[in-house]
Design brief:
Layout (H helix, E strand, L loop, with lengths): L5 H32 L8 H20 L11 H21 L10 H7 L1 H21 L2 H5 L2 H20 L3 H22 L5
Helix pairs in contact: 1-2, 1-3, 2-3, 2-8, 3-5, 5-7
Length: 195
């Protein structure tokens, strides 16, 4: 029996990752739909909604940039396991934004600030996963992003650690606004077209 080629393996891996990412998108959209359907049930928090937008953008972008995996010449179970793990971490971000129940919390602000250690800890890990993912696609791929990409990683991890350390609402608001602006800029400048 002949082993499948890398081009045959890639769609399989992409489908499995897509299922996990799809669950994350579903979780976010269902959470937003619950807020719209029952606006007075649980008080909303603009920072929480901002992170919802940021994570949704991250999931959509993840699905877009993972097309770069097409260029991998040899697939291993380790690479496959890593990519599934990365997808699971992204799903967990969604799960921490919208829990199954809000009965223990006075609103999304109370919930978000009480779970910030988990949320920002997982968010920080996504930047580490992203770096490893970029390396999997090859050194040339990593170098194509220039110095900005290498600076971006420690800066965002440090910002996540700062967000873990404080309940200051202004700091959290500035962080989510800055993150969304940077995300959009980063995507448009470096990922607008797949090559």
């Amino acid at each position: 029996m002949e082993a499948p080629s890398a081009a045959e393996i890639f769609p399989h891996v992409r489908i499995v990752m897509g299922m996990v990412i799809g669950l994350g998108v579903t979780r976010l959209l269902s959470g937003v739909a619950r807020i719209v359907q029952h606006p007075s049930r649980t008080p909303v928090y603009a920072v929480h909604l901002g992170w919802t937008l940021s994570v949704l953008l991250m999931l959509v972008h993840f699905w877009w940039w993972e097309f770069g995996l097409y260029h991998i010449g040899e697939w291993t179970f380790g690479i496959y396991l890593f990519l599934i793990s990365y997808s699971i971490v992204l799903f967990l971000l969604c799960a921490f934004l919208f829990p199954e129940s809000m009965t223990d919390y006075s609103g999304y602000e109370d919930y978000f600030l009480s779970k910030r250690i988990w949320f920002f800890g997982i968010l920080a890990s996504t930047y580490l996963f992203d770096y490893a993912d970029t390396l999997i696609k090859g050194r040339q791929h990593l170098e194509s992003f220039g110095t900005e990409y290498l600076v971006r990683l420690p800066v965002f991890v440090a910002l996540c650690l700062a967000a873990i350390a404080t309940r200051n609402r202004t700091v959290h608001a500035m962080l989510v606004i800055g993150t969304i602006i940077y995300q959009v800029s980063f995507i448009l400048r470096l990922f607008d077209t797949l090559s």
